[in-house]
């Protein structure tokens, strides 16, 4: 399966509108070490350099970036899902 197709399939499980501001850089499938959900899917998302339409008229200043954060999402097919943003 090509990487583009893999990302398109993963996008079907993400919250609506998320890919307007972020792109999927990579993903990892690991053992979670948990009893019920024994697998874990981690999606690495990178912020796009776009400004939302409602803020285009405002002056803005880039203040750098923070360390990536992990957000727990809903399980998919018996796997815990983490979004690393």
TrEMBL record:
Name of the featured protein: Transposase
Domain of life (superkingdom): Bacteria
């Amino acid at each position: 399966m090509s990487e583009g197709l893999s990302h398109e399939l993963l996008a079907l499980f993400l919250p609506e509108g998320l890919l307007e501001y972020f792109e999927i850089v990579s993903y990892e499938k690991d053992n979670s070490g948990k009893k019920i959900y024994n697998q874990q899917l981690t999606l690495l998302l990178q912020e796009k350099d776009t400004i939302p339409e409602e803020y285009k008229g405002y002056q803005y200043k880039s203040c750098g970036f923070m360390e990536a954060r992990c957000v727990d999402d809903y399980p998919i097919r018996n796997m815990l899902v983490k979004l690393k943003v």
